[in-house]
Amino acid sequence: MKAHTSAVLGVVLAAVLALAGCDRPPSGSNPAEEPAAPATSSQQGNQTPSQALPPSQAQALASLAPLADSVRSAVVNVEVRSRGPEPRGGIPAQEDPFGGLLPFPFGPPTPRGQEPLRQGLGSGFIIDSSGVVLTNNHVVEGAVGIDVKLQDGRQFEAEVLGTDPLTDVAVIKLRGKDVKDLPVVRLGDSDAMRVGNWVLAIGNPFGLSSSVSLGILSAKARDIQAGPYDDFLQTDAAINPGNSGGPLFNMQGEVIGINTAIVGGGSGIGFAVPSNLVKALVPQLEKEGSVTRGWLGLGVQDLTADLGEALRLPMHQGALVVSVQEGTPSAEAGLKPDDAIVALDGKPITSGGALTRTVALLPPGTQVTLTLYRDGQRLESKVKLGTRPDLEGLSERTNRHSQIEPHQRLGLALNDVPPQLEARGAPQGALITRVVPGSVAERAGLAAGMVVVEAGGKPVRGASDLVQLLRDARPGSVVLLRVQFQDIRALRTLRIPE
After folding, report:
1. CA-CA 20 to 30 A from 5: which of 232, 294, 349, 451?
2. For residue 484, what are the domain limits?
């Protein structure tokens, strides 16, 4: 329903590894009164004395070490194995372990939705001691396996509880017997932040873990054309590839944004999803796994001063209706093109994007009152919100990614042994054509070129046999594999993720 236009920034989403933990620091500091950096002695000589800083703020300006120490333990590294296309040009031919050269991987092209696995890195932060972690959707999208590492060295597997691609927010949950009493940080009030307030980003840029950077809030409510609900915070704190999903803190150690995007070719221009938007989404994501949004069925754009004058409106800010879809809540309520919506339930609407975001945060079935101007007359219209349809086709993509075979979660790509290899003496079995770096399979000592001939004491005559055996294996159990590489046979143990 969003139809207003904005200048398109060259924005690239960067994979961001971050860690954020929080024992709340003293509450005496006030983010709305954070001062600028102190002047030098030469500058002070030409200035009138300024008001003394509160002790907590003076200490924060002297050193950010106490703040950083109080939150870093809850920031986590997120390692993801996901499906995706191989680099253009494909994988070059590799040496056949049984002699000669064969194209690699073997067999027909990979079906859609079963692409080879790839490794990715990002960041997140713990918001509940039971192991609930927030990160970006683009960090975990398509994940078949997720490993989360804490600052203290502990590592856990994780599962996706819910994702919202339209705002790039995801909730994941750590798994394991030792997931308890974890360090946490809390979400703060992003609306209370003012442009110029100090902010702190912690992440893993380019693999440099727990890197801390300081900056200010450069702007609010940025629309960077990343999605229909853009309302980003802008900061000049250093955000680089490896920071996606990590936290942006205020000076009280509260998370006021999830670092999400940077401007391509820019310097000191990063964007974060505001915490107040995140707080509105988390309950649905934890419970339902996705976000169901209210919907009007309108096309809108920003009402400008020139448009207001041309339409003879007393208001120069609002959402101007440009289209009304038939059979939608807005059509049933009698809304028309050129209506200028200026309030929803008494809350001012200053732009098309503001109306889109406000409606999207309300559940379907909610009855709202729209204040609007039509032909210079002020009117009020009651509308019962509908359910926003899947305009972007995200549900189909999510369902495709959820169809994950056990061997893919383990980091394995399998195929039957080709006849040309059998002719050279290779045994029948499941040929390992790819092992994802850092995966469960790699840690078990498996490698491309090995042939699995037995699993759990049962013979393996092809890839489908091994897939079925792994599918039937109990989570947490260990499967004994007998593998052959060239003329050598060996045993490997593969633990099935819980």
Report:
1. 294
2. 405-495
